[in-house]
Amino acid sequence: MSSSDIFIGETIGTAVLILLGGGVCAAVTLKASKARNAGWLAIAFGWGFAVMTAVYISGPLSGAHLNPAVTLALAIKDGGWDNVPIYWAGQMLGAMIGATLVWVAYYGQFQAHLTDKEIVGEPAAKSVEAEEKGAGPVLGIFSTGPEVRNVVQNLATEIIGTVVLILAILTQGLNDKGNGLGTLGALITAFVVVAIGLSLGGPTGYAINPARDLGPRIVHALLPLPNKGGSDWSYAWIPVVGPLIGGAIAAGLYNVAFA
């Protein structure tokens, strides 16, 4: 794979990932959306199918990493570091593009939702608490946040979820020689993401992907949304550092136990 193929593939794939993943969060959250209040099950499956679609699209070009933690784990596993910056750059750009496209697709719903500061489905006390923490009523569409703020627990949750994801990817044995996840791997990984969301997503919203969280958080900070609140930068390092640690741990476990 050439550097240009990697960058283009990761940009397009990650954009699709965030467009569909962020899109289901917007659909469930925003007023005037037909899927409003569809619930966590819809979000978990929406993100799983988003991963599957993005892998199918970007796999032929870049191997469909779509996640800096995956790229890091594969570099540790195989010892190939040359293309890591290219993968990461494409993933971050793609995540920001995807988040912007969510805003475009749901522009009317964002405007309707933000005419007041109510958090849909939550009591007023929750709204006040969220605003005191710097999180606006639509931040959850773009990035993750904890239900209980505990740095050790939040970081551990992201690490654990990412270890499961990366081990599931590495043990498929389909990433060797730059072949990516392959057709079956895309489906398997999609269901793994659903499983992580259903089982481990409750505490933090399961970023398990630094680009997935940081790119859209930057877009949230930049978008001209009325009454959007803060972007919760005090928490932002956890869904970046946690998945990277998890990816490194998973690669180490793979090399010890499976290689």
Topology (SSEs and partners):
Elements: H1 3-29, H2 40-62, H3 68-78, H4 84-105, H5 107-113, H6 124-132, H7 139-142, H8 151-170, H9 182-200, H10 210-222, H11 238-257
Which descriptors apply to this entry?
11 helices, mainly alpha, 68% helix
How is this structure best described in words?
It is a single chain. This protein has 11 helices and no strands. Helix 10 (210-222) packs antiparallel against helix 11 (238-257). Residues 117-135 and 174-181 have low confidence and may be disordered. The chain has 259 residues and is mostly helical. It is globular and about 55 Å long. The chain has helices spanning 3-29, 40-62, 68-78, 84-105, 107-113, 124-132, 139-142, 151-170, 182-200, 210-222, 238-257. 53% of the residues are buried.
Largest sheet composition: none
Helix content: 55-70%
Estimated radius of gyration: 18 Å
Distance between the termini: 24 Å
In short:
With 259 residues, the protein is mostly helical.
